[in-house]
Amino acid sequence: MDYKNLAQTYKTPLYVYDFDYIQTRYLTLKNAFNARKSLICYAVKANSNLSVLKHLANLGAGFDCVSIGEVKRALLAGANKYQIIFSGVGKRDDELKDALESDILMINLESEAEMKRLEIIAKDLGKKARISIRINPDVDAKTHPYISTGLNENKFGVDINTGKKMYIYAKNSEYLDPVGVHFHIGSQITELSPIIEAAGILAEFVRELKAIEIDIKFFDVGGGIGVIYDNEKEIDTYDYAQGILSKLNGLDVTVVCEPGRFIVANAGVLLTSVLYEKFNKQKRFVMVDAAMNDLIRPSLYEAFHGVELVGKSKDESSCDIVGPICESGDFLAKNVMLPACESGDIIVVKSVGAYGFAMSGNYNTRGRAAEVAVSGGEHRLIRKRESFEDVVALELEFMK
Ligand code: LLP
Fold first, then answer.
1. Which residues pair with 41 in a beta bridge?
2. Ligand 1 mean position to 145 CA, how many Å?
């Protein structure tokens, strides 16, 4: 990819996504489940750009949404409403109402209280709500504590006993239709066994439910497949699918999975321009025009993202790549080897297609970056750079 040309054309900081890679990743996962009915519901939160969603909708993907905003994005991008799931650990009444009115595939519940709210709202609307329940299988996903969700100590889902009570309640309700089970034990998972263990626990649970005539049709295994940022080993999609399917003997269910990172992380890079270099007694700093408001993963999780200086490779020495924000935590990479940089050089920050732009903000009154799609050698803008006027737009009229 001609990063220099892209940076010149669209300016920096700039997110660039390889749409062909996104397609390959989606199809790889979809094909791994060939033997069974399956639905890949892309986790919108990872990268919610409308053009990314449209690209995936065109390929036949469904969508996993965690706010009514994400549901609306998916619909706007042309998603099939019967392939949209609405999850999320706390949903507002108006979100539940809008989701019911949108007639999406199912609403994924996370607590008894939420189920009772949904029942009342469905009754008011004269509708029967298709639901699944997020079961917390108490399995350790062995990932970063901030993105591990399947342990009893986490706020997500309900334990299996509570889940069973909820399914029985839902079955007897005129306004609830329990059609799915769901688990999601964490993100950036690089070991297959916790996912298979959770699938086994849930499959057994589905058998119990079927025995009491609760007919579960969707078996949702969540997202979480890890990707390579540095030297991780990626879970093989065939092993992943086979491992899950091996637990489903005798069960006539559609397997649903909700990958976010797997599909988009390594499709994206962030291009940033070098402003200048700075040395103090201890360190070399390369100041760039992207900052933690553009990519918060290094600051928030101490996440590693590979970096590369475009067009130069000689005389590397160690440095920190830092942004212009007034916080010591504002860095994109620490102790990395880079050649001597000059103002205007372009640095590529890798593997940022997931939870990159999606988690960006306006801290320090910095407009958010532009986004570009590349496919078949062609590039096009898919989100304009935010201007100063965009950033202050919602405040301006209230200034006295
Ligand atoms: N399904 C549910 C219910 C989820 O909570 C998540 C992610 C996914 C699917 C998609 O997970 P993935 O396939 O992308 O791992 N901001 C963090 C990641 C947070 C993940 C939250 N939930 C990061 O930058 O690493």
1. 62
2. 13
